[in-house]
Amino acid sequence: MPPGPAGAPTRLTGMTYSGEVRVGGPADVHELKDLMITKIAVGPMDNNAYLLRCRATDEQLLIDAAADAHALLGTVGDDGIASVVTTHRHPDHWQALAEVVAATGARTYAGREDAEGIPVATDVAVDDGDTVRVGQVRLTARHLVGHTPGSIALVYDDPHGHPHVFTGDCLFPGGVGNTRKDPEAFATLIRDVETKIFAPLPDETWVYPGHGNDTTLGAERPHLPEWHARGW
C-alpha cells in the first residue's frame, strides 16, 4: 500500500505513455526498443499489474496478478505468459494468482522471505541481485525490507535508454510504502530504497508502483530528507 497521507501524484508529461490508468479503463502501453510494458489497474484497491513482453521473442511476464483474472488474462492474450512475479505477500497483490497460473501454466516468482505468505506455491524464490528473465530481457531483483519482509523490486536497465524499476508497494510518488508507524520498519525500508534504488540509478529512472501513477527518481529524490523527517 502507498505511504500514509499520500503526496500529490506526479504527472509525467510530454510522452505518449502516461502511466495513468483506472480500474475498468484501458491499459496503457510503454513501448521500449526491446520491451513492451502494459500497465492495467485492477481490483477494489486500484492495484497496478504490469505485463512485460520481450520484443525479440514475444515471451511475456506478468508482475502482480493482483485481482480480476478475467481482465488480466484478456490483457495477456492468446500468447500466454511464461512467468508471474509477485512483488510481496499482501493479499491485494495475489488475489488472481491461482486462476492466472491455472490458465497459463506460468512459473511463479516471489521474494524468498515472502513466499510462505503467498497461498500459491512459489516455483522460484528470489534473492537480492537475482536475475529474472523475460525472453532476452534481463531484470534484476532488489530485496527491499520494511513494507513486508520479502518485498522485491525489479530493475530493467534499458541498454538503449534510462532504467525502469517496478517497485511494488515500496516506492510511490510522495514516499516509501506503508510501514504502519513502525519506526524500525520505516528505517529499513527507506535505507534499502535509498541504497538499492536511489543510489545506483539515475534521476531519469522511470518508477512503476503497485498503485497509482508512475513517477521518476528525479521527481522524488529532492524529497528524501522530508520523508526521513516525517518518518513515513
Automatic annotation (TrEMBL):
Instruction: Return the CDD domains for the record.
Output: metallo-hydrolase-like_MBL-fold
Gene3D superfamilies (UniProt xref) = Ribonuclease Z/Hydroxyacylglutathione hydrolase-like
What SUPFAM superfamilies does the database record attribute to this sequence?
Answer: Metallo-hydrolase/oxidoreductase (SSF56281)
- Return any one Pfam family short name: Lactamase_B
Q: Which organism is it from?
A: Streptomyces ziwulingensis
UniProt xrefs under SMART domains: Lactamase_B
Report the InterPro entries cross-referenced here. Answer: MBL_Glyoxalase_II (IPR051453), Metallo-B-lactamas (IPR001279), RibonucZ/Hydroxyglut_hydro (IPR036866)
Name-wise, this protein is MBL fold metallo-hydrolase
Q: Which domain of life is it from?
A: Bacteria
List each copy of the Metallo-beta-lactamase domain by range.
46-211
